[in-house]
Design goal:
This is YidE/YbjL family protein. The chain is mostly helical. Helix content is 81%, strand content 0%. The protein is built from 5 helices and no strands.
């Protein structure tokens, strides 16, 4: 694919991808992850309640800390959300933030 694209660019071929394909790609990615992990989801919830609750608590504390620091630095909500989503590198969160 890269070689073909490089050859096309060298020949002056330009292709514009519609902006609407970004959210569509994200939706397909999220759907594929859900389909793959869905059958095991409820089993994991039943067997690992304590670690999941601890992880949720850490996440909430981190989100509150990020919000507090962001407000103290005078950041708006979108910038705080984008910074937090970038810190956890979660593609759906990044898409929702920006």
């Amino acid at each position: 694919g890269i070689i073909l694209a490089a050859w096309g660019v060298s020949q002056g071929v330009t292709i514009e991808v519609p902006a609407s394909l970004g959210p569509l790609g994200l939706a397909i990615f999220t759907f594929a992850i859900g389909v793959q992990s869905g059958p095991n989801f409820f089993h994991v919830i039943r067997t690992a309640v304590a670690p999941l609750a601890l992880m949720l608590g850490v996440f909430v504390v981190a989100a509150a800390a990020g919000l507090g620091v962001g407000r103290a630095l005078g950041m708006d909500s979108a910038l705080i959300a984008g910074t937090f989503a970038g810190a956890i590198t979660n593609p759906p969160a990044l898409a929702a933030a920006g």
